[in-house]
Amino acid sequence: MNALLNFMDKYFLPVAGKIAEQRHLQAIRDGIILVMPFIIIGSIFLILANFPIPGYTEFLTKVFGDGWQQKLTYPVSATFDIMALIAVFGIAYRLAERYKIDALTSGALALSAFLLATPFSIMHTPEGATDGIPVDGVIPVALMGSQGLFVAIVLAILSTEIYRWFIKRDITINLPEGVPPAVSKSFVALIPGTVIILFVWIIRLVLEQTSFENAHNVIGDILYAPLSHIGGGLIGVLVGVTIMTLLWFAGIHGDSVVNSVMSPIWLSQMDENRMAFEAGEELPNIVTSQFIANFVHIGGTGATIAAVIVIIFWIRSREIKDIGKVSLGPAIFNINEPVIFGLPIVMNPLLIIPFVLTPIVIILTTYFSMSFGLVAKPIGVAVPWTTPPIISGYLATGSISGAVIQIINIGIGILIWLPFLLVLDRQALSKEK
Question: pLDDT tens, 143-164?
Answer without folding.
Answer: 888 888 889 999 999 999 999 9
